[in-house]
Specification:
With 93 residues, the protein is of the alpha+beta class. Helices cover 26% and strands 16% of the residues. It has a domain at 2-39: YefM-like fold (3-Layer(aba) Sandwich). The protein has helices at residues 6-11, 13-23, 75-81, and strands spanning 2-5, 27-31, 34-39. The radius of gyration is 34 Å and the shape is rod-shaped.
């Protein structure tokens, strides 16, 4: 752990941050010889895998095997399948 005056830290801030990030170094920043701050590396959290990242975060409610719409709602759609649009085949030519 190194100690560095605030004026030197101000001049070399980006370089020191790179050293901390890459080399896991720690610096104590002083002002008039007294410690005022500490520059330490961040604890890195492991990244979640792209596979299974939602595991355990949801729940199933209701019936997942039955139809989403009751069978009565399908009746109008079944009746309209056989109906013609009123256009003849000649109009397509």
């Amino acid at each position: 752990m190194g100690s560095i005056p605030a004026t030197e830290f101000k001049a070399k801030c980006l370089e020191l941050m790179d050293r901390v990030a890459e080399g896991r170094e720690t610096f104590v920043i002083t002002k008039r010889g007294k410690p005022v701050a500490k520059l330490v590396p961040v604890e890195r959290q492991p990244k979640d895998s792209i596979f299974g990242w939602l595991r355990g975060k949801g729940s199933i409610t209701g019936d997942i095997l039955g139809p989403a719409v009751p069978p009565d709602a399908w009746a109008p759609q079944k009746a309209s399948r056989g109906r013609k649009t009123g256009k003849s085949d000649r109009s397509r030519r």
